[in-house]
Fold this protein.
Amino acid sequence: MLSTSLIRPLAALAVALVALGPALAQEAEAPDAPAEGAAKAKPRKPAPPKPAPAKPAPAKPVATPAAATAGWPVGASSVTEVYGDWTVTCARSAETKTPDAKTPDTKPECAVMQAQGSKGRREFAIELRPPAEGRAQGFILMPLGLAIEPGIAFKLDEAVLGKGAPYLSCSQEGCLVPIGLPTLATDTMKTAKNLLVSAMKPDAKEPTVITVPLAGFGDALARAAALTN
């Protein structure tokens, strides 16, 4: 069973990019004063040449999806990156390969996650680890107040996904549902728009549906896999 330690509040990240361009100023030439009487006009000094316009500053590099396959940042012990609606979180944990080993092996643990809530309180969260042996294991944190017996069901856009999943346990934070999605499902999620998670409330006729946007899911999962390897 996978640890639930990675399910935690989603960190709000914002990057402000400001483009600065050079300001060009031009000065108008003052008109010559009229000659007085019959005095000959003095020859004017040639005007100094106007400076050449400054070249614009080179544009700052823009992040591309290729960053999802970059290696582990040098010197970092943890990584948190945002791809669309998904966040990649990784941490290195020191583990010794053998009892006689003198140098511990730093093994990164990564997951992609998304959290939803209101008024500063997390009400829903989903976490998936990179696929291993054909499945991506993880957890879903559902809000309280739902019927436990039916479990939860999934749809990718309008297509039913699997047979659903049962609840594992509940706490003050909500109710945990362990999930294991086959590679076929995670591959489809890369091109789908929304993952729909539905559950029933007691005595309710219609299910409660939570919409999980999938924008950035493919890049986030690729990045988590690249950092894990």
